[in-house]
Amino acid sequence: MSTAGPIQPEMEIARPEAGAGREAARRGPGASARSMLQMAWLNVLLAYRIRIAFFFVFIWPMMWFFIYFLIFGGMRPLAVAALFGPLISLEIISNALFGFSMQMVTMRERDMLRRYHLAPISATIMVGSRMLSSYLLFMPVVVLQYVLAVWWFHMPVAGNLLVLFIVFSLAFLAISAIGLIIACVVDTVQEATVWNNLLFFALLFLTGTTLPLMQLGHSIQRIALFLPPTLMILSSAFVMLGGTGFGANWPELFGLLIIMLACWALGVALFRWEKEKKTNRRDRLRAALALIPILAVGLWLNTSPGFQRVYQTYMQQSAAAFNAAVKK
Q: 237 in a domain, yes or no?
């Protein structure tokens, strides 16, 4: 069911990165950042050299781009604008859960992480480099899809494009951080597949990714505000359909940032290098702490009168665009 879950390369080039890890250990935070960037760039270069990785990184999401807008958008510019956020949401969810998360579990199960740990490389550098490489592989595709949507499908250009870029970036990192927590609390690839599929379908049908939010029940609309893809879809719609900037989108941006930072820090703390080390009850309880920022953001947005007014305005103003998107 995934659409953009790239099979990223499992790095066998350990020596350059091992040297970078030792250098980072000696020199501190600055060297750690350089080491993370070096490892991420090596992963990106290797991904484009492997055919199957290139297919899932580039060809697969572009296929869905044309399917989405030709079939569901019907070549209507406003419908394409209404569907662009849900399309990116679908790609981010797939990438984070079936790409990044599964990749980390596979590397641990094959004892590939053990080699990096001997470098030594910290968990922050290891996790950060893999997530950064996923981001660097994903965002150029998003930029290309936006350009094609404007040029090919005549999608209207409105709002602050920098805000739109930040929205997609924060959403990718936040959902990837949630995928990281899943990767850290499961013990096998089979177990990861089960949990990632459960989360995939929940995010797919409860966030406006597949069905427009205004077509969902009132209770589902409330639940949707607890989930990062909904925040991304709302904020991107405010920018692309309403022409808004930072001021009108700060609640969604702040919510995505809080979820990203909290889940990232928790994922790094739970990170395991060796497959022999199994998850215990304490680890699962610590992983449950990831629900705190998600619940806090959702409760805040559900109880904020100002955001609720904006939320209902979005429902009303975008109804025509979404109706055009689902009707040919």
A: yes
